[in-house]
Amino acid sequence: MVLAGEEDEARILRELLDAGVTVRGFTVTKVSLEDIFIRVYGHQNVA
Question: What is the pTM of this model?
Answer without folding.
Answer: 0.51
